[in-house]
Amino acid sequence: MAMEIAARLGRFSFGMGDRFAQQGRAQLAACVEALRQGVEITPVWNKSHREHAIVGSRPESVRREADDAVAALAWRGAYFVDADHIRMETVEAFLVACDFFTIDVAESIGRAADAASLDAFCADAGDCGGAFGLTRGQVRRIAEKYLSAVQEAARIYRRIESARGRGQFVTEVSMDETDTPQTPDELLVILAALGREGVPVDTIAPKFSGRFNKGVDYVGDIGQLEREFEADIEAIRQAVSRYGLPARLKLSVHSGSDKFSIYPAIRRVLARTGAGVHVKTAGTTWLEELIGLAEAGGEGLALAKEVYVEAFEHREELCAPYAAVIDMDPSRLPSPEEVVRWDSQRFAAALRHDPQCPDFNPHLRQLLHVGYKVAAKMGERYLALVRACGETVARNVTANLLERHIRPLFLS
Ligand SMILES: [Zn+2]
What we know:
The chain has helices at 24-36, 49-55, 59-72, 115-125, 136-164, 184-196, 222-243, 263-273, 284-296, 298-313, 315-319, 336-340, 344-351, 362-370, 372-378, 380-388, 390-410; strands spanning 12-16, 42-48, 80-86, 100-104, 170-174, 203-205, 250-253, 277-280. It is α/β, with parallel strands linked by helices. An eight-stranded parallel β-barrel has the order 1-2-3-4-5-6-7-8, surrounded by five helices. The longest helix has 29 residues, at 136-164. The protein is globular, with a radius of gyration of 21 Å.
């Protein structure tokens, strides 16, 4: 039997997005440095169908970027390319280039499963061993809400397995893009159902309580999140021992970039439990490109300002697809007239996520986070300047991942 490449994901893995596929090396450099400091973190390059559609790219470009970065930096560890948030309608285009699949079934939550399969599941699951004080009635109510989503995950999983082979890819199931968080007892029932459907899930991304907005810090009760995170790990432990799921199964934290206030809590729970984690970040590398352009001055700064002015003018349409995951107050955006007068340092300070800095503006940051369509439209003009300002851009990309994310989560 071929070696299970899914097993190579390891205890700690880090998902990195790169809208324009220019920063693979600068991103990998953060993992190289973490390894040098003693912690192995598996890099995963993730890009969703939505991002590909907006940028006009194909999954093969992410594979090329990852392979090139790994060769250039002589990275000897494992690495993956993630088909991020795919569904049955979008999976086909990713089957060749990707070896990590984030199966998004949030849309199927709450849909009724057929009565026969619901009865069969409930007969098998019983009260899930009474874990978390569950009763048969509660297991049934949870199954009524989630069984159909699990069945959809199994359908998509089987399509991927038929194309790539069992064990030859990482399976993530995500339920985070929905309104209500899943509780640990719900997670246990979901995992029981995944095990019964024969989905060897490697990582699961529940929706946690609190707000995980794009590109800004966590909003919510950190103590509660810490307890929930630890209880979710306990649900995973029980599910692995009862339902035949892979022992490596771990939690995945989506929209994980910039959640500075919860990293110490996550780190404490990982230390207490010995559990692993996958932390997925996406769009913030593009913001580091803009910071690098601004810091380069001259044409770079001019282009960064042009992106802001254009994004400001189209703020409503840019924000619409992300309404559930941003909290932007348009009245607190600086006017284009004001931004045009800024120097390099002022622009970088407004955008860079340093909560201590009085010039940091989370509204501007969130607008630019979702504003990558503006740069995508500029096409080669944007890309050529990013390459020309490669030094300041790469320095910001690497430092953002290493110092603001990987260090507080995984290094001392
Ligand atoms: Zn997600």
